[in-house]
Amino acid sequence: MKKALSFHEIMPNDVWKWKSMECQLEQVLELYNYEEIRLSVLQDYNILYKGITALLDREEAREITGQLINLSHPDEDVSLLSLRPEGTINVLNHVVARLGTDKIHRIFYHGPMFRKDANHKPVEFYQLGVELLGSDSILSENEVIGLGMQICHQLGLKDAWLDINSFGCNTCRPVFFEAMRKFLDEHKKQFCTECYEALYRNPFHNAECLEESCLHSIQQGPRIQDHLCPKCKDNFNRVKKIQANLANNYKVNHHIIKNFSYYNETVFDFVVQTNGHATVVGGGGRYDFLSNQITGKQIPAVGFYLNLDVIYSILTARGLFHEPSPTFRVYICSQSEELEIMQLQTVQELHDSNISTIISSDLKDTDAETKLARQNGCQAMVILRSENIREGKVLLKNLVKEKQSYIALSELLPEIELIRKAVQ
Ligand SMILES: [Zn+2]
Ligand SMILES: [Zn+2]
Q: How much distance in Å is there from the Cα of 229 to the middle of ligand 1?
């Protein structure tokens, strides 16, 4: 059998969990005054290419752009489109072209992103993206890191901690790269060809290599922390101090992995413990030079993503989704022909009082209707019959107290309100 593609098909039974997650994270974003931006799922390949390959060498760029899912078009005038693999590049474009670069922007977005996995299979994943554009202050990156931690805590991941490191600046990064290449040359035999070449191209590369000797050698290799310039070192120490004071646990991770390597200085991951393993649920960093590559304008920026699929499965495994209390709902059925208009008018009247309803679509006997009303979680039901209507009455059943009575049409709404009050 062909293996199913990894696309989201979220059934009604699970949608409330996604909504509760989205609602909680939006509440925290609102507290920090972040504004939502809604991005197209389709993006211009050429712009993406420029952004993704910024600060990469050609070989590594090919590896990363190979993850894009492109839609070819026979018409050469139409630029090649890709399914969005992330949102940062797009946001930078909109800020420069439409929102202006003269002030600080706090922006978030969430929704499906698309990439090819290691086996070239297309994968859809839900992601939250948060960007603070227009400030290079230490305060701004600590705001963003603190915000990410607060969202994790709000969602119930109380044990989340930070893995942090610095990728240095244009002054100290080349010094580290040189030290790494010197180390690689001296220890070439201890690495497999793949790791050697990948690390030579990008010393931040962290191959998921299973060879003991590679892993061991990487651990023994030079660390950027030992090569940071005084300014980067000072900034990094301030980040650690501020996060410690905010009671956010952190570990310095010398081998932090970043998929899109356009970061400089502070980089971080949000991590939780699952089944004895450290699981990265999101992360980000500062990317002061990316906008220049894409738009020609320098905008200092810092941002992060949260992988909502990973968070969703952790929250599910930990039993952290709490089903909301059932909505008060009234079942409306008719047992005579030609009462459709009355049935729908009754429904409208209840909706005007913010009472939820379920409309029975067919004529059925009372027992069958009552059973359906219960199955649908209704606490009350209204039965319309011609012979009652002629006397100006309807049958109202209280399904919680197992009581029923014929009441005047004008009394229907107040009686239903009484049942609602009693059950809530
Ligand atoms: Zn530096
Ligand atoms: Zn290796």
A: 4
Architecture per CATH, 329-423: 3-Layer(aba) Sandwich (3.40)
CA of 167, nearest ligand number: 1
Predicted pLDDT of residue 1: 46
What pTM did the predictor assign? 0.89
Tens of pLDDT, residue by residue over 44-103, are 888 888 888 876 667 777 878 888 998 876 666 666 889 999 999 999 999 988 888 889
**Pairing relation of β-strands 161-166 and 250-252?**
parallel
Q: What do you get for the CA distance between the two ends of the chain, in Å?
A: 49
Q: Which-ligand-closest: CA of 232?
A: 1
Surrounding ion ligand 2 within 5 Å at CB are 192, 195, 209, 211, 214
Q: Tens digits of per-residue pLDDT, 348-401?
A: 999 999 999 999 998 889 999 999 999 999 999 999 999 999 999 999 999 999
Compute the distance from residue 246 Cα to the ligand 1 centre, in Å: 25
Helix, strand, coil shares of the chain as percentages rounded to 5? 40, 25, 35
CA of 206 to the centre of ligand 2 (A): 10
Q: Where in the chain is the domain with CATH 3.40.50.800?
A: 329-423
- How much distance in Å is there from the Cα of 195 to the middle of ligand 2? 4
Which ligand minimizes its atom distance to the CA of 166? Answer: 1
Correct CATH for 12-172+228-317 of 3.40.50.10580, 3.40.50.300, 3.10.350.10, 3.30.930.10: 3.30.930.10
Cα–Cα dist 109/224, whole Å: 32
